[in-house]
Task: structure prediction
Amino acid sequence: MHIPDGFLSHGVNAATLVISAGTCALAARKVNQKFGEREVPLMGVTAAFIFAAQMVNFPIAGGTSGHFLGAVFSSVLLGPWAGLIIMTLVVAVQCLGFADGGLTALGSNVFNMGVIGAWGGYGFFALIYRLFRRSPKGFFIALAVSSWVSIVMGATAAAIELAISGTSPLMIVLPAMAGVHAVIGIGEAVITTTAVSLILKTRPDLVGCWYSRPSCSRQKESRGETAQEVRRDPLQHAQGKRLNN
Result:
């Protein structure tokens, strides 16, 4: 899905760059407003995990291979705005440091894997999760389906961009891209579901969408009250915690 230089027209690259840059600017503003000292390091850890996980490729039929994307994974943990920022950082580092994707196509790759992957995938997750009335079973079903959908949507967008640029006819490139990435999406769903499940067993508070369930509302309020106490007087809060222990 990492489109190299020379495959897309200047018009397509310019249009996707404007959309990606504008969306990332808005995402940075949202994250800056909502996130604090606790969430920012978690964004860095999540980005590092996704970057490392993308280095591992698994074979697909026909001599091709696929790898983990992580757009839905990051969005479910930290929200779609943070997920977009994380995916942009990962795609940019891969482009600039490893020549994985062209520099002129950076805006297109961010659009396909960040804007569509993070926001589009999260949209499907939220929709399916609501259909299952935010149940634990519905959470994992929504997580698996949206992870698969994020891969297929990103690949479909890349195929449309290639067709608009005149690189390949849509009737040829769309089935090829969507077909291969439909298989890759299965791996994405398995990895995402497994990773989130492991996090839930140890630190469920790190999974934002799980922690926002109605059954966790009291815990969430308690966590919010604790955070307010820390902000008001961190020294007093730390002393009180030591006394309690």
Summary: Strands lie at 57-60, 64-67. The chain has a mean pLDDT of 84.
